[in-house]
Amino acid sequence: MNDWSKREALEREPGRVSGTWVFRGTRVPALALFEKLEDSATIAEFVQLFPGVMIQPVRAVLSYSAF
After folding, report:
1. Domain count of the chain?
2. DSSP states of 1-67
């Protein structure tokens, strides 16, 4: 399992969004990215669906999760 605590693209706070990992500065769970990709969405579509999430953090999360 990845250690998301070292990733600048994500953050987590116990009282926010049930303490799940979210894209920094948003309430969008990182898990939403993987769910949308599994549903055949593209990265561009994901960013359009979730205003506030930028493409660079999405790419960083995907790059890190590939290890």
Report:
1. 1
2. ---GGG-TTEE--TTSGGG--EETTS--BHHHHHHHHHTT--HHHHHHHSTT--HHHHHHHHHHHT-
